[in-house]
Amino acid sequence: MTTNKFSHIDKDGKANMVDIGHKTQQIREAKASGKIILSAKTIELIRDNNMKKGDVLTLAEIAGIQAAKQTSNLIPLCHTLMITKAEVKCQLIDSGVQVNTRVKCIGQTGVEMEALTAASVALLTIYDMCKAVDKNMIMESIKLDEKTKLDI
């Protein structure tokens, strides 16, 4: 047995959900972002709302919000959180779509995984809705932009 420096691994090297019971409740917020590179034709179809599957940006935003709420079901060692706000904004840019997310909760652990999951699923939704017309899409730059916590 070795001394363990990793919080998600127990003394025997097995997966371990961190005990956050001793932590105080705080207002926690995280922001994440990412983008998807699209062809000019695909951008035009989205802009004109002519994609066969529907309103790409609105559906991607809804999918991202749903994903934030389901993060603990997707990522094995994430805690279930009471999310107080999940916001996903998808915006057309010259090269494709920029996705920005913001997730808040009052809890004992952060919401960065929820913000990153929201961004990732929003991008995957755009990919799914556009795959019939664009075979060269690239999702990139998915990242945590900010993480904050404030005492209540």
Describe the fold and architecture.
It is built from four helices and four strands. With 152 residues, it is an alpha+beta fold. It has a single domain (26-151), classed as Alpha-Beta Plaits, CATH 3.30.70.640. The chain has a four-stranded antiparallel β-sheet with strand order 2-3-1-4. Strand 2 and strand 3 form a beta hairpin.
What share of the residues does DSSP label as strand, in percent?
A: 25-35%
Total of helices: 4
CATH topology: Alpha-Beta Plaits
Alpha-carbon Rg, integer: 18 Å
Number of domains: 1
Average the pLDDT over all residues and give the rounded result: 94
Total beta strands? 4
Helix/sheet category: alpha+beta
Q: Helix content range of the residues, please?
A: 25-40%
Reading the helices and strands in chain order gives: EHHHEEHE
Label the overall shape.
Answer: elongated
Read across the widest sheet, the strand sequence of neighbours is 2-3-1-4
CATH class category: Alpha Beta
Protein name: cyclic pyranopterin monophosphate synthase
Organism: Ancylomarina salipaludis
InterPro entries: MoaC, MoaC_bact/euk, MoaC_sf, MoCo_biosynth_MoaA/MoaC, Mopterin_CF_biosynth-C_dom
Keywords: Lyase, Molybdenum cofactor biosynthesis
